[in-house]
User: Fold this.
Amino acid sequence: MADGVAIGAPATSGTPTTGDLPATRTGELALTSLMLLPGALIVYMGFNAGGYFPTTPAVGAVVLVQILLFRIMLSPRPFEGLR
Assistant:
């Protein structure tokens, strides 16, 4: 640090990089709905026969499988984070 200025520090701008969250409104909405899905499924299963009868967990499982398949089909590298 020289005269209150950091030397060798990378200059950052206000623009997002490729590793940031989605920049579009549609991407933000999709990410928010995906994060809210587990809570919504818990509430749905809790109020629909308490999650005891097989149809309630089956609906939740079908929804989750559809989301997983949708991600696998549309993502360029769907298994990139798995190692």
